[in-house]
Design goal:
Blueprint: H1 2-18, E1 43-47, E2 56-60, E3 66-71, E4 76-83, E5 86-92, E6 100-105, E7 111-117, E8 123-132, E9 135-145, E10 149-160, E11 166-173, E12 182-189, E13 226-230, E14 237-246, E15 252-263, E16 270-279
Antiparallel strand pairs: 1-2, 1-16, 2-3, 3-4, 4-5, 5-6, 6-7, 7-8, 8-9, 9-10, 10-11, 11-12, 12-13, 13-14, 14-15, 15-16
Length: 280
């Protein structure tokens, strides 16, 4: 009964949120809040060979909160603004895009939704979060369609190990506009006991969607040693085993992957992946 009441309240909050008429940029003070206790790792760059470099870049306020995020060497750049101890908005500041990503929280302080607002002050997209306790168990993306409303175009469902690390991530994209339906699963295993700094990248859809920073939750506390991806019958599937090197503070400096395709047109082929991390 308590669970049902909680879900009902969150739905009510979401309805109020989706139909609110706030201006694109509010007057929230730009002074950032104190940092989250215990989170002092200042990731600077994530570099992946053969991709725009750096692939992710972070800049920080004096109190260690993130103030700027750069994706794909300037393909997307965001300024980050706070309301108290929580992210309030991420604002895209590249020449061709000035979208605002506005965060909304429920009465418990959990992230309820993020809405995407364009230069014309029109909300054209939402990200909606569902929690089981303190763990996010589902994230939905929807898109505004003229004369129809908002249609869900991506859903991620998560399960976890008892220690809080992500076990499975199941993605579903419905068939829209003649595109095929997509349903795939990623399984993560063999976690180390070191600090994870890039779990946000697991759900970022690269050049097709805005990057957003996590607030109040993490998918991975540590680093997985193995990932198994299944794209469905006849589609790309693979396994990849990771080897890490670490700094003295237990953060990774490199992640080397041995990837083997197990299904699809490249079945049986193997190659190496590389990711490098730097810090302030």
């Amino acid at each position: 009964m308590i669970v049902e009441l909680s879900r009902t309240f969150r739905i009510m909050m979401l309805v109020l949120f989706l139909f609110s008429c706030k201006k694109e940029h509010s007057t929230i003070p730009e002074a950032p809040p104190p940092p989250e206790p215990g989170r002092k790792v200042l990731l600077k760059d994530i570099t992946i060979p053969n991709l725009p470099s750096p692939y992710y870049h972070f800049e920080y306020n004096p109190d260690t909160t993130v103030k700027k995020v750069d994706f794909a060497s300037g393909f997307s750049i965001y300024d980050v603004f706070y309301d108290g101890a929580r992210i309030h908005e991420m604002r895209s500041n590249i020449l061709i895009n000035h979208d605002t990503l506005r965060y909304l929280y429920d009465f418990t302080g959990k992230l309820l939704a993020i809405k995407f607002i364009n230069d014309a002050n029109i909300t054209y997209r939402h990200i909606i979060f569902s929690f089981n306790g303190n763990q996010v168990d589902e994230i939905q993306w929807d898109q505004r369609v003229d004369d129809v409303g908002f249609l869900i175009d991506r859903t991620l469902d998560f399960t976890y190990y008892p220690d809080g690390n992500l076990k499975t991530m199941i993605e579903h994209r419905p068939s829209i506009g003649g595109s095929p339906e997509i349903r795939d699963t990623a399984l993560f295993e063999q976690y180390d006991d070191k600090i994870n700094v890039d779990d946000f990248s697991l759900i970022h859809d690269g050049i097709h969607d805005h990057l957003f920073l996590f607030q109040g939750f993490h998918l991975q506390k540590n680093n997985p040693g193995k990932e198994t991806f299944s794209g469905g019958v006849g589609l790309i599937s693979y396994t990849v085993n990771y080897t890490y090197t670490y700094n003295s503070n237990l953060t990774p400096t490199s992640k080397i992957g041995d990837l083997l395709y197990t299904a699809g047109s490249d079945k049986g082929k193997r190659f190496q992946t590389s990711t490098f991390y730097s810090y302030y």
